[in-house]
Amino acid sequence: MKVSRRYFTVGSASLLLTAASPYKLLADNSQKKKNLIVIMLRGAMDGLSAVPYIHDNTLQKVRPDIFVNNNLKLNSDFSLHPKLNNFHKIWTENKASIVHATNIPYNERSHFDGQNLMESGGTLPYKLKTGWLGRGIDVAGLEGLSISLPMPLLLRGEINHDNFYPSNLRMPSQSMINLMHSHYNSEKIIKKSFEKLTSRPLSMMSGRKNKRLANLARIAGNEMKKDDGPRVAVFEVFGFDTHAAQGGADGEHGQKLRQVDITFASLKNSLGKAFDNTLILTLTEFGRSLVQNNGYGTEHGYGSAILIGGGLLKKSQVYTDWPGIKKTNLFEGRDLDSTIDSRSVYCSAMSVCFDVPFKKLNDLVFPDKKLPNLTDKLFNI
Question: How far apart are CA 381 and CA 372, in angstroms?
């Protein structure tokens, strides 16, 4: 049987209900397609461990059992966790940056509320039913591809966007597809779902082994580098809630950072030249406390860091209004303060990737606050 590039992928009921064709040719063929990828770090990534400040020995004093040694040098002020070695290689190519001492405008330290707000982009938990990325896609008139199950709030907009999770089932025959399609022809919603499913590329037909982040990233990168491929992808890395056994370089937190690092590397490799027209950003609900606890871990904090990769960056840099980690500089005397609203970073990134004016995105996606435009400070425009 001859199989076209776009074909049928079997999925669960959840996939069927949320599926939408991710393929859309650019209206202006002279304009290069730009990709935006978000990696959600659920559990609150420790920005102080991932990107430590090197001119202050406070961190080593208050974290004697989980302090990370042998960090990778970034610049004269900051270093990088050794498990982020692939990210560091991208840094040396001038295609990686970090925004430090940043967070969404939330400081109550609840995972449930924090994760809802990091995805919705709002200031009141559960008030918004759509995500900031989904709303941004709506404003730009684009379509997205989510690599997760179920559809994350982050990607939900007024328009349904695409959701992919690898299936372990066999691909049905074309005759079976035609039979199902014709049988439900009178049901508009079901008919539309089958049309969306039959537009799926063959490369998305994958088994259990492809549920690994690196393989998911490879699949996504291979699709996103196509001129008519998806422009948006969302990944999730769980397990950053390191209340216990956070460890040093080889601890639990380091292993989670390693997963993030592999995802960056796999995306870069699979995107190929398209990496130069891509932005990859991390997103987390909050940071971790400065001082280690009795379980050799850290508690919920406030300020954290955003890791960014891609050729749309202006240069490799640590962009921050660094507040310091002396006790008098800490938020509520215990956490790295947040001096940058992270939504300004995400709004700027969408402006670059979607070719939509920053102010329009700010007004329609984050209407509660006039955010500073960081586009010219972080990205190529």
Answer: 16
pLDDT value of residue 52: 96
In sequence order, what are the residues at sequence separation of 6 or more whose Cβ sits closer than 8 angstroms to the Cβ of residue 130?
120, 153, 156, 157, 158
CB atoms within 10 A of CB 176: 11
Please give the model's pTM, rounded to 2 decimal places: 0.83
- Mean pLDDT for the chain overall: 83
pLDDT in tens, 178-218: 666 566 555 555 555 555 445 544 434 343 444 578 888 89
Q: If DSSP states are collapsed to H, E and C, what string results for the chain? A: CCCCCECCCCCCHHHHHHCCCCCCCCCCCCCCCCEEEEEEECCCCCHHHHCCECCCCHHHHHCCCCCCCCCEECCCCEEECHHHHHHHHHHHCCCEEEEEEEECCCCCCCHHHHHHHHHHCCCCCCCCCCCHHHHHHHHHCCCCEEECCCCCHHHCCCCCCEEECCCCCCCCCHHHHHHHHHHCCCCHHHHHHHHHHCCCEHHHCCCHHHHCHHHHHHHHHHHHCCCCCCCEEEEEECCCCCCCCCCCCCCHHHHHHHHHHHHHHHHHHHHHHHHHHEEEEEECCCCEECCCCCCCCCCECCCEEEEEECCCECCCCEEECCCCCCHHHCECCCECCCCEEHHHHHHHHHHHHHCCCHHHHHHHHCCCCCCCCCHHHHECC
Residue from 27, 67, 29 nearest 254 by CA: 67
Angle between helices 358-365 and 342-354 (to 10 degrees): 120
- Spatial distance between the Cα atoms of 247 and 249, rounded to a whole number of angstroms: 7
Rg, Å, the chain Cα set:
21
Instruction: Return the residue matching tokens 């549920």.
Output: 211
Distance CA 215, CA 233 (A): 14
Are the C-beta atoms of residues 277 and 32 closer than 8 Å to each other?
yes
* 304 in Cβ contact with 369 (< 8 Å): no
